[in-house]
# Entry
Amino acid sequence: MRWDSLRLDSSDSGAAPPLIERGAVARTFDAPEFRGMTFYEVRAKSIVSRVPEASRMPFCWTINPYRGCQHQCVYCIHSETPILMADGTTKPIADVRVGDAIYGTVRDGNYRRYAITEVLAHWSTVKPAYRVTLEDGTKLVASGDHRFLSDRGWKHVTGAEQGPEQRPFLTTNNKLMGFGGFAEPPKESVAYRRGYLCGMIRGDANFSRYVHAPTGKVSHQFRLALADDEALLRTRDYLITFAVLTTEFEFATGTLSRRPIRAIRSSTRTAFDAIEHQIRWPRFPCRDWLCGFLAGIFDAEGSYSGAWRVGNTDPEIIRWTTRALDALGFSYVLEPVVKANGLMVVRLRGGLKEAMRFFHTTDPAITRKRSIEGVAIKSNANLRVAAIEPLGLELPMYDITTGTGDFIANGVVSHNCYARNSHTYLDLDAGRDFDTKVVVKVNAPQLLRAKLASPGWGGEHIAMGTNVDCYQRAEGRYRLMRGIIEALRDAANPFSILTKGTLILRDLDLLLEAADVTEVGLNVSAGFVDKSLWRAIEPGTPAPDRRLDACAAINDAGLRCGVLMGPVVPYLSDSPAQLEAAVRQAAEAGAVHVAPIVLHLRPGAREWFMQWLREAHPELMPRYAELYGPGSYARKDYQARITGQVRELAERFGVGRQATPRGRDAARPATPPATPPASPPAQASAPPPAPHEQLTLL
# Structure
């Protein structure tokens, strides 16, 4: 057997890419079609993925048992750029890792708000560097292709108003969105620790000396009880550095409405005297002490919920709080005293910008008090672009993919990178790594069975082949799809498959069994039947006529298979004769529907495709610039024309009229519309995209 040559690859070239977890097994095969390729076998943690809400896809869940390597993305920023983590601290993007919780943003009605998200991918490359300077002094070093959110939408660092490099780009008329550059964190010096202990203990601890009458015996009591372990443990650890040992205990048990409270204490005179010495007011406080004091008093008595406040009844504590704020350049107001106990409240001015400067300058311990989740990104920070300068050198650049599609880089909203998963659509490789390195989730069937059996799973429709073709050549070796289909069949869970691979015919027996118990939708992707064009832009896929033969075989077996005419490549596969040939052959294959999808040039893929077009068809460059402009989609009139032509051709050739329903589909009309509805129900049988949806070239 040709697969008997399977072997472990221990060479450097087989080292797992950064996106792959440690422990991945790298394998190569001697079979001719796999020479030069490396397969990284990983045990994934999950297999069913939710489709981003911003997507136009008419389904919510997808499975991708394979994934191509994504190292050659063009969106990158410099390695030292600080990223806002979910706990309110910052970390250089080079040190961020997959699985880290960070801040991104989400749309909420008319506003965009900060939200905690997860890092899904992280990688590096080397790119020419540009420095973007904002009027408040914030500096960002990024590649020319990177995008930031401005007051006029997402914009690349560099671009042009016309020609092949036409795209939205930053100018000095733009203002970026965010709160501005991160402040330098404090040094955890002896003075900082003393300041923190002073603020925390004076603000919230029971620290007192008692004289017992009539014996005159003196007792010493130190106790600090907090619901937030972060501040309690910091206080305990700082006291240890000053040779003060405390005992930790449970102060109050938690209830349904109240968190448990832990405490530390000491009642020895030695410890009491040492603490008293450390928290005394300094005659000449240094900056480190002031930062520590503000962090401590905020952890003890502060809050932030859109406005920063610190309150206390001790006038001396309030005086020191305002003195420290003055010294660090913060503006504040003293709110009127309204409570009988004389509570005085200091409120910081300047909105989110100044609150974030406070958090990073002083570094309080309590994460929940630093949270900005749900806060609108609008800000009074002066983030107008002052200059964009090429640095004249190439630098190491990093980028990440996140659950929200963006992240906060040095205080401004930055677009993340999306992998160019061209295997699914145009099969135009995104660099040698994508063609030669494939991640294989070897435990996909087992993960799926566990997911389908979990109490929280509601039997929603699952789409496959929407990101990476699940019937690519490696499936012949790994046979993951058989286990996946068996799991879906056994759970009677509706699903659909989109593929350019003919290997789907291997699993006809399982697909027939599944169709008897649930809704199964199948679609073959064939945007054109011109073999010369296929060789030029889809050389790694089966020929279009072989895909249509697979469609015919599926329909002959009694299943319902449609044809996704994607992508329709403007000026290369959209002539009346080409469209007619594609629809006629789809009809001859018994396609139950035909849906055209015009090429979608998503940023990142746009640059790659335009480079290919410039080399292969330079005469089309002006026409593409006119058709797409600076955006990702072809003009609506062009999309409507293609959709109308295909609909007329489908009616002429009788697409769908000979469809033979099977199983749960038997009660459905035998003649579905030539073009499926734009928004099918979640349980629909493999709905292809709406007619005006454009195919994404990632």
Notes: The chain is about 25% helix and 25% strand.
